[in-house]
Amino acid sequence: MDRINSTDREKQVELLGKDPFGKNHFDRGDNTSQKCLSSFDEVQDVRLDDSVAKISVKEGEIKSKDNKLLGILYMIATGLSFSLSAITCKLAYERNEHLNGLDYVLCRSIILPICSIFQVVSTKVNVFDVKKEYRMLLALRCIIGGIGMPCLFIALKHIPLSLSILIVNINPLLVAIAAFFILKEKLTKLNVIGAFGAFIGVYLLTLHKSGGDQDNPYYLLGIFLVFINCCCQTSINILLRVLNKELHYTMSPFWFSITTVIISISLLLCYPSVFNFEYYTYLDISLFLLSGVFNYGVQVGKSLAFKYADASLVSPLQYFNVLYLFISDVFIFNCSFTVTDGFGGMIILVSLLLPIFQTIHQKYSKS
């Protein structure tokens, strides 16, 4: 809807100010004219806001009301995609001890751009049209992501999934706190209780899952790398919330995929010996590529989740990852199951469902 030009606007307001006999009430010397102009602007703004909201939804640039339930669903789906990515990567490590995290990074850098380009073409988004004020933030997000994710997948070779996930899942708590203080987002008591309750459940799940070879000289290195990933993920989640309020949701995944290509090419040129090409099998490569596809789902899912809902609300939902990975530990990687595990899983589930039910109640009670 185009804004009415100033001349037409003045004519219409002038007509509003005259009675049927042509007397101009704006000549009374009071502020009636200004009030009428303001009211006229407000009516136009409401109409324009509605029009912008419709256009924004169509283009994927949600700038009006947040859809919290949709953000919740995207984050739950993101957790499943992340878990599948970690599981397929771990399966490759289990069957081939010569593989390392950099081998995974290389394979992922092949599949991510393919997925990203396909989506960009299908959505017809100009990913090069990034607003100037967001370019530095987008670059920072890509660099941090390029550092953090390889750290996690390198660590998975040396420490159990459960331990790595316990450390990584400190980040939802940090994101919720950072969103409250930095982004000034609302943080309800139920959100806080849910986040801390879920983390306690995570601790119970990992309490008897030491696993791995603690005499392994790289065991402590694995823990350190996971802590780096935790810090990186916290920063990324905050940046995604800031970026995706304005940018199309495909922007971040696309430029992140380009960053992974640059990192992989740099490693190939400078340190080719860190890759174990001679030990690759078709199955190993297939598992890594499949893990990369799931990882792309994580990139897109997070972008959409943080576009539609507050980081303080959806970030703790990443604890669903723990439930998914716990199931994989028991049924795929033959980890033990105890009563404590069941109790921890129930605490996580209840802690996460309470804020979701609260959001559903708030949405439908208003309507």
UniProtKB/TrEMBL annotation:
Membrane topology of this protein: Multi-pass membrane protein
Protein name, UniProt field: EamA domain-containing protein
EamA domain residues: 70-206
GO CC terms: membrane
Higher taxonomy: Eukaryota, Sar, Alveolata, Ciliophora, Intramacronucleata
PANTHER family reported for this sequence: ACYL-MALONYL CONDENSING ENZYME-RELATED, SOLUTE CARRIER FAMILY 35 MEMBER G1
The UniProt record lists the keyword Magnesium: no
Residue ranges crossing the lipid bilayer per the database entry: 72-93, 105-125, 137-156, 162-183, 190-206, 218-242, 254-274, 280-298, 319-337, 343-360
Compartment annotation: Membrane
Any Pfam family matching the protein: EamA
Keywords from the named record: Membrane, Transmembrane, Transmembrane helix
The organism's place on the tree of life at top rank: Eukaryota
